[in-house]
Specification:
about 45% helix, about 5% strand
Length: about 170
């Protein structure tokens, strides 16, 4: 309900003939409480706070990627991607090894479909992660590399050919 109050009240000409001063005062005194009630009702209605819309935006990709990495990838690659966190000897993904040599599409494919290695195997995680989560993990990995490593990796990524049946889907 919206109340609108016009502060310019129209001039009302009343014919007070036949009313004595006491009756005029009675009607005027009745008008003020009614006006006060109306203004209070409007103030109450318009001062009711509107609920703030809740934020439904998705977290920033690097933050999301860090969270996914910590919950799924860190058990093999280490909490800080330093690698060799358990008997599987998963390699480091930070700036100390060669993860930055691989294009995003290939990293994406390995996360989704797994990867064979010498004496070790990375399991496929495509049934546990969404495409957006995989992209977010890759965004997080980018933050672990030096600027030179990232520039080199982005150059390789831009030149990497698409596979005939890619699991990689470019961002919109």
């Amino acid at each position: 309900m919206v109340c609108a109050v016009s502060w310019r009240l129209p001039l009302i000409e009343l014919d007070w003939t036949g009313f004595d001063t006491m009756e005029k005062g009675f009607y005027v005194r009745m008008l003020f409480p009614l006006l006060a009630f109306y203004l209070t009702a409007c103030a109450t209605v318009t001062s009711t706070p509107t609920p703030e819309p809740t934020e439904t935006s998705t977290p920033d990709p690097v933050t999301q990627g860090s969270q996914v990495f910590s919950s799924i990838c860190a058990q093999c690659h280490g909490e800080n991607a330093e690698g060799y966190a358990n008997e599987l000897s998963a390699p480091a993904l930070d700036s100390t090894e060669h993860a930055f040599h691989h294009p995003d599409q290939q990293i994406h494919d390995w996360i989704m479909n797994g990867k064979l290695g010498v004496g070790r195997q990375m399991p496929p995680l495509g049934d546990q992660l969404t495409d957006g989560e995989v992209h977010a993990v890759i965004d997080y990995l980018h933050t672990l590399w030096t600027m030179e490593q990232l520039a080199s990796q982005q150059d390789v990524t831009s030149r990497y050919p698409a596979t005939p049946e890619p699991t990689w889907t470019p961002r919109p």
